[in-house]
Amino acid sequence: MDSLLSPQLLAAAMITGVLYALISLGLNLVYGTMRLLNVAHGDLVMIGAYVAFIAFSLLNIGPLVSMFGAALICGFLGWLSYKCVFQRLLSNGQLLSRLEENSLLLFFALSVIIQNLAILFFSADRRGYEYLSAIVEIGDVRLTGARLTVLIVGAVISAAVVFFLRFSLFGLAMNALIQNRDASAIVGINVDRVQMSSLIFGFGITGLAGALISMMEPISPVMGFPYTMSAFVIIILGGLGNLWGGFLAGLLLGVLEVYGVALTGPEWRSVLVYGIFVLILIFRPQGLLGSGKTAR
Amino acid sequence: MKNSLKLVLAVVLCVFLAGVAGFADEYILGIGFTIFMYIALAQSWVVLSGLTGYISLGHVVFFGSGAYVFILIWGLVPVWLGVFCSGIVVGLVSLIVGYPVLRVRGPYFVILSFGLAELVKNLVLINEARMYVSMRPVFGAPALYQLYTAMLLLAIIATGLTYWIRRSRFGAGLRSIREDEEAAETIGVPVAKLKLLAFAISGVIPAMVGAIFIMRSGIFQSGDAFTPIVSFTMVTMAIIGGSDDAPGPFLGVVFLVLLQELLWVNWPEVYMIILGILLLGFVLFIPNGIYGWLSEKYFGNKKNVT
């Protein structure tokens, strides 16, 4: 039991938690503003990770710089998919009547396309690179430099994003859309533009998180899927569309996962995540912070 | 066409397909097997998801569980009894599991179905790892023509079932759930009972299909038996064909299996990409599927969106 109280484990939980919080933020934005269920979310993590990998191994650019490139590229994909797919979905009455289900099928199709394109281009092999791999000691905690960097950069960026969404005009418009779409249109918010921006923004920060992840873990075209699942667990835990709730739930899931695995064993990781997921959906689909009413 | 004529044609077709088993070569039988397999799967999917609107993205859970039950009792009971048992066991279990699961509605159900399939898959994986089994070979399975005939039978049963349910009082109840569950409940449709029944029916045939499938592949591996690809192929087939009635999935399956036959072996990635593009295109532009589109265009009857 001693090992459970060690600061080492706490640090690991914090790193996972911060990354989860960041990743789920993007998913939550897209769901909150447009009610789109993005099951291709983890694939954006994968794209971000590959951007960082290529930048590092071919161009010799560190992930701390290329993560902004990853954000730009994923943001561009957000724009593209909005223009090509979701604008049509959101403006067609017949499709809109079953919006969530249809968006799920569409994103699923996108996920299949992205993953297989990645396999065609990069092969299915797992890859990785060495960056800041020296061990850093802080008190009793021993971390690689990369993991420490991920923790700090991830926390700073998450905080920046949360503040941006809370205080900037753009963030307020998004929040308004999350609360009430029709009312936002009435008070003069350009709904179409805010929707497009939140898709770009949500995709962008996810790509950035992917670049951070590539610093610590091997990457592969199918790496995204577990992140999709975790992100869904988180935004349901926090309440769909509830940005703060999702942020806290991200930290919580990180802690649950790291400590759960420490107690049982690595092979139980997936069972743990999916188990929490299934139980939450059955017993509290409105999320931990939600009121008695479901978001539907 | 008159209904009786349709029926005669269908019977002739089935007899012909069964007769083919006698002399066709392995390759033809293999394609036939795959087509019938997906017809049985897609039709079963339509019973739950097409009719009630509870879209299941984890239908492979029935397929995999059936295969797992079957491999566990393999050698203990006669082969075909084993297939039957796996269907019954999975059907009974899904009656129990379905009760809490079907209380979850809309998009929550869609992701839940998916998460549930992954949960079961990982539990089976852990269980197998504990017993130090990475894969289980199936020795002495029946010959391909027997499996082909069995699969044909399942495809016929599944198609008949969907056709019949769609036109029955039961099916009308299921579709009322899709249109407006609260309204249906208010006017006295026993929605909870109907959903649960549809869930179990929709699980029995995939379970038996899973059992027969591992006799064909000759091996049980939990990762393969529960692969999400099967769920997704099922959904895509039903949606491309049109998932409101029996002829829809039929069209979708034949189209995709032929595509699979052309591309799967050499270019599996290209196959999956085409699958993705097709799904995208159909959801956006032809949400009623090939069948819905055809019948609207040529027969003037308007189908409902699923």
What distinguishing features does this structure have?
heterodimer; A: 296 residues; mainly alpha; two-stranded antiparallel sheet; globular; disordered C terminus; B: mainly alpha; 1% strand
Secondary-structure class of chain B: mainly alpha
Biggest beta sheet summary of chain A:
2 strands, antiparallel
Estimate the global geometry of chain A from the Cα principal axes: globular
Instruction: Determine the strand fraction of chain A and express it as a percent band.
Output: under 5%
Q: Estimate what percentage of residues of chain B fall within beta strands.
A: under 5%
Describe this structure in words.
The complex is a heterodimer of chains A (296) and B (306). Chain A is mainly alpha-helical and 296 residues long. Chain A contains twelve helices and two strands. Chain A has a two-stranded antiparallel sheet with strand order 1-2. In chain A, helix 10 (224-238) crosses helix 11 (243-264). Chain A is globular. Chain B has one domain (3-227). Chain B has helices at residues 3-20, 26-52, 60-73, 79-101, 106-130, 144-167, 169-179, 181-186, 191-217, 222-225, 228-241, 247-263, 268-285, 289-298, and strands spanning 136-137, 219-220. In chain B, helix 4 runs antiparallel to helix 9 (191-217). Chain B is globular. The two termini of chain B are 25 Å apart. The model of chain B has no long low-confidence stretch (mean pLDDT 84). Classes of the chains: A mainly alpha (296), B mainly alpha (306).
Question: What does this entry show, briefly?
Answer:
The complex is a heterodimer of chains A (296) and B (306). With 296 residues, chain A is mainly alpha-helical.
Protein topology:
The complex is a heterodimer of chains A (296) and B (306).
Chain A: H1 7-34, H2 41-58, H3 63-91, H4 93-96, H5 99-122, E1 135-138, E2 141-144, H6 145-167, H7 169-179, H8 181-186, H9 191-214, H10 224-238, H11 243-264, H12 269-283
Antiparallel strand pairs in A: 1-2
Helix pairs in contact in A: 1-6, 1-7, 1-9, 1-10, 1-11, 2-3, 2-9, 2-10, 3-5, 3-9, 6-7, 7-9, 10-11, 10-12
Chain B: H1 3-20, H2 26-52, H3 60-73, H4 79-101, H5 106-130, E1 136-137, H6 144-167, H7 169-179, H8 181-186, H9 191-217, E2 219-220, H10 222-225, H11 228-241, H12 247-263, H13 268-285, H14 289-298
Antiparallel strand pairs in B: 1-2
Helix pairs in contact in B: 2-6, 2-7, 2-9, 2-11, 2-12, 3-4, 3-5, 3-9, 4-9, 6-7, 6-9, 7-9, 11-12, 11-13, 11-14, 12-13, 12-14
